[in-house]
Every structure is written in C-alpha cells, then in structure tokens.
Amino acid sequence: MATVELRFSALPEHVRTARLVAAAVARRAGVDEAVLDEVRLAVGEACTRAVGLHQAAGITAPVRVALVEEEKQFSIEVGDEAPRVVPAAVAGGRPGAEDPEAEGEDEMGLAVISGLVDDVEVTADEAGGLIRMSWPTTP
Fold first, then answer.
1. Is the whole model's pTM more than 0.90, yes or no?
2. Cα 60 from chain centroid (whole Å)
3. E-assigned strands of 48-139?
C-alpha cells in the first residue's frame, strides 16, 4: 500500500495543486483514464469545502489530503479540523443554531461529491471532519 500525503494552508489557491496531485497519483495507481476528471472535481470540491470550513472557523491548521493506493482501489481522504457540534436548538435564530446559508453550501458540496463518487464516506465530530472517496483500479 502506497500513500502520498499532502498538507496545505487553508487558502483557495492551493486547491488547484491538490487536484493536480490527486489526478497524477490516481493515474499512476491505475484509475481508469475516463474517471480522472471525476477524481479532480471531487477532490477540488472536498478541498474547497475544507478550506471554507477552516476559514469560517478561523483555524490555521493545514488541510490534510491522503492519497492511498491499495491493491484494487485508490482512495483519497480529505480532512479538516473544523469542529462540528450538534446545537441544542437548530431553529431560526435561537442560540446554538447553525448558519442556514453555510449549512446549505456545505450540503451542496457534499451532494456534488456524492454525484461524482460511488464510494464516499463523510464523518465529522468535535475534532473535525473527513471525506473518504474510493475508485477501483486496474492493473
């Protein structure tokens, strides 16, 4: 199992580099050429989401990307350190409610990723979030 790790400052200009690296490593791992655009788009969306979460929360820690080449699949993990808490009240304007506009953008980004990737897993807790995406490879 080969792994490439990438960490970058939570700035939008670094997302392009993450996309290019992900596509290059996916190609080397044996991901079908026809799927590489989907890999690029999904990684770009996941990294953009992580950058936005870091900036909104004022987090200076880097966004983490792990590109994992396994025997029959290629996986990408995009991690952030933006804490997620379940508010006591999630209704209009009450204390602890999340920003509905930010939540809508977050849901849209996840919907785009889910549309591009068949095998996707999203987890989040008070320590941050992780999006894990996988594609099959050919020898």
1. no
2. 17
3. 63-69, 73-80, 119-125, 128-136
Q: Is 82 helix (H, G, I), strand (E, B) or coil?
A: coil
Contacts 24+ apart (CB under 8 A), 104-107: 105/52, 106/49, 106/53
Whose CA is closest to 13, among 46, 44, 56?
Answer: 44
pLDDT per 10-residue tile (average), the chain, 139 residues:
90 96 96 94 96 95 96 95 67 43 70 91 94 93
What pLDDT, on a 0 to 100 scale, did the predictor assign at position 90?
Answer: 41
Q: Edge-to-edge, what's the strand order for the sheet holding 128-136?
A: 2-8, 63-69, 73-80, 128-136, 119-125
Helix, strand, or coil (residue 32)? coil
What is the sign, positive or negative, of the torsion defined by CA atoms of 97, 101, 124, 126? negative
